[in-house]
Each structure stands twice: as C-alpha cells, then as structure tokens.
Write a structure and sequence with these properties.
mainly alpha, two-stranded antiparallel sheet
Length: about 240
C-alpha cells in the first residue's frame, strides 16, 4: 500500500513524515526534501526561485539571504528590503491626469498594471469578459480594474527609503544617503532654532532686569518706614519691661 510523505518531490515508496523525514531544506523556497538521492539532487535545480532576482536591487537569494516576494501589481520578484517601497511606488499612476485614455471624461476605473484610467464606456472590452460580481477587466491587459475613488494614490511618482540614494559598487543602494538627507534637513533648521534661542535669551534677560528694578523700588519704599521696637527687630517683650 502506497503511503505519501511530506517530501516536496512526488515519488513512490514508503517514507516517514514530519521532521523525521527531512534530509535537506531548499535554500530558495525552504521546502522539505527527503533523504533520497534523487530528491536531494534534482529539487534545488528545478526550484522556480533559483534565478529570482529583486527588480529593485538586482540581488538574488544568495546575495541578500532573505525571503523573496512577488509584487502584487507588476508580478516582479522583490527582496525583503524592497517589497514595501516598491509596491508603494508601483501602485502610483504615472499619468498627469485621471481622465480616460480614450476620451476626456473622468476615468472611474483604474488599471494598476497599465497605470491608466478608463471611463465606463471604454472599460468594456470585447476580448476580456467581465465576471459577475467583479470589476471590469482592463481592455489592454485584462487585469481586474479598481475604482479610482477607492484608491489612495497620487499621480506623481515618489521615492521611498533606500531608493533615494545612489547605487554603490555592488549595484545595491543603501540607507546612507537616506539618513544623510534627513540629517541635512535637521541641520538646515538649526539656524532658525538658534535665532529662536537668542530671542528667548534676550527676553529672559529683560525679565530679570525688570524684576531687579521692581525689587529696588519696593525696598526704597520701606526704608523710610519706622515700625518701632518689634520682635523681629531684636527687641523682646522682657527687655521692654526691664526698661
């Protein structure tokens, strides 16, 4: 009787399951491979992620040493460092207007793959059929469109994170330029803050001088005032009785 195992390679035979069968783990997709010589020698070569390179930094799995992702809009491979930045910039419409590409009316439907908008009339396609309960497909590529009003995106292209810096010798850009830009912006505002500090210091000096003048005036008022013999002036009640 045939018994299936957890090995990613389908083959005949009785094998153990779970961690007891693990002979190797694929370096690309982290799949479990059993102890069989055929499985150990063939799967890594046939792995679909062997030649996967990040579309942003052009690094493979062996270079960045992390997981590989696929963009939800352009279906390109992305590394773990660039997945969020790329998808945030990939969904931005590169057009200067939200008008339909075939007419001047406002496009209610947007295709994030073609980066174009279509009105109700021009979103209908004879090639791609619209399924029930779904948005009409893009007349160019057939990708499902989305309503433009539901999309939170800008018509201008933006740069995020490490993509703002120039490329280094190995072809990958780092975060150094990004942090330098932030630090330069902070240092650029130091002159403004220094002026504010100077104004505050001058105000404090003026307040101190005004306080000293008021103290001097109040002391001058009480110097000519004679209250007689008091306990505070050093004369006790028994000294007055002796007199």
């Amino acid at each position: 009787m045939m018994k299936s195992s957890d090995c990613v390679i389908k083959h005949a035979g009785v094998y153990s399951t779970g961690l007891a069968m693990v002979g190797a783990i694929c370096d690309f997709c982290e799949a479990w491979v059993c102890h069989g010589r055929k499985c150990l020698s063939t799967h890594a070569c046939a792995c679909p992620l062997t030649d996967a390179e990040c579309v942003e930094c052009e690094r493979g799995v062996w270079d960045h040493g992390g997981r590989i992702f696929s963009c939800s809009f352009c279906q390109n491979f992305l590394c773990e460092d660039d997945q969020f930045e790329h998808q945030a910039s990939c969904q931005v419409l590169e057009a200067e207007t939200f008008k339909c590409v075939s007419c001047n009316r406002l496009g209610q439907h947007s295709c994030l793959r073609c980066k174009a908008c279509f009105c109700d009339d021009h979103s209908r396609s004879k090639v791609f059929k619209q399924e029930k309960g779904k948005q009409p497909p893009c007349p160019k590529c057939g990708h499902e469109t989305q309503e433009t009003k539901d999309l939170s995106m800008s018509t201008r292209s933006l740069k995020f994170g490490r993509q703002t810096g120039g490329e280094e010798g190995d072809g990958a850009s780092g975060y150094d330029a990004y942090w330098k830009n932030l630090s330069s912006d902070k240092y650029g505002d130091t002159s403004y803050h220094d002026e504010e500090d100077e104004y505050e210091a001058e105000d404090d000096e003026d307040d101190d001088e005004a306080g000293k003048d008021s103290d001097a005036e109040s002391s001058d008022l009480f110097t000519s005032l004679n209250l007689g013999r008091t306990y505070a002036s050093g004369y006790a009640h028994y000294e007055e009785q002796e007199d």
